[in-house]
Request: fold
Amino acid sequence: MPPIIYFFLSVAALLAGYMVYGRLVERVFRPDENRATPTVTMADGVDYVSLPAKEVWLNQFLCISATGPVFGPILGILYGPAALLWIVLGCIFAGGVHDYLSGMMSIRYRGESIPDVVGHVLGPAFKVFMRLFSLLLLVLVGVVFVQAPASLLDSLTRMEGDYIIWLVLIFAYYFLVTIMPIEVLIERLNPFFAVVLSIMALGVIGSLLTGDYNFYQWADWHKPHPDGYPLWPLMFITIACGALSGFHATQSPITARCMVNERQGRLVFYGAMIVEGVIALIWATAGMTLFPTAEALNEVLNKSGPAKVVSDICFMLLGEMGGMMAVLGVVVLPVTSGDTAFRAARLVMADFLRLPQKSIWQRLLIAVPIFAVAIYLSRVNFSLIWQYFGWSNQTLATIVLWAGAAYLVRLNTCHWIATIPATFMTAVVSTYIYYHKIGFSIPYEQSVIMGGVTALASLVIFLACRRRLAERVPLELPPLK
Reply:
């Protein structure tokens, strides 16, 4: 079988996952098209704005598709073809479920931010923890998605001092978009971003398919990571967006506040995750095809980082002009997520303070200190920020999956669609923090055992508390007056 067939089979599996498993997830949740959504009951012209389904889907896709489905797969393919399997299986059975449940629960809970949603389901202690944890993650995401596009744009201009200039300009753009009404972003900016992003994705995969390339030339199941890093659990942290990402749960409430019908959920939330998986497959395929060996790719990554790899791939495939357009398409990914990361941070703080956001001055009151912290953190080394972002991102996804499982228990329906990936990811994030140097630095074998025990204990506790959850969790909240 020609290796390129693996790409088409992977894409076909993702589409089949949307059609079959996505429909199953929808049937388990039982959306109600006659139920009034928050955009109808709480319209404010700023964050709660009714929009057509295609615009809502596009906004969700652009919100969640940051550098994760580009940088993550490029770093992840150093572990070999297992990266492709994780992208496909992760999207279908974990990422799509996570995004759908987080978005639909937010709709049922007045479009509230994910810390409040988790608090309604898992209790007030989790609400406090999630507020602090989500704010930390959102600010880290915002910083990462300032540094990453600034590095990519700097690789285009290649002039001394340009990186700082791009950093300032991107921060300024994020600040303006954070305080603007949501319809300005969705109706005026998103269509332009979508065109640039489409040129990037179609240009890269089109050039690969029409050129004479040796696809997946170093796809070897038995070859270890060039630096000797263990596949478990590091690969599942490295490839987040494109398979499963907690950041998506912070973005889903932004979209939930604009949806007029619960039946749109599978298209908007699950569907956007599947398309992001396709983007991840494109970049994983490009990396494993255009670099002769994993060691060659790893050398560039260690020397110049993933932004340099992205730039090299674009120019190798598309030439000077096409490469510039493709790099701009990659820039769109973090920019369209960085702006909504800061917007989500503003909404989390607003929900915590119970501060209405209709007035520009109320928005500024929250946005200014958030950006002050982000600007300070932007001085920290990118690789260190990325490591903390990766773990906190997947930890948030794990908590949201447990919350989704608890909500499904309350619905008296099949909770296992969320419980199984939640247990799996509990093993991933706990093993990672036990083992990694940013955590406890415990020896690898002990960390794996401790991670497995932590996951099993979490499952046992959840199953033991099912009856209490069924009695306590509210199915929905009435709109605020």
Notes: The mean pLDDT is 86. The chain is about 75% helix and 0% strand.
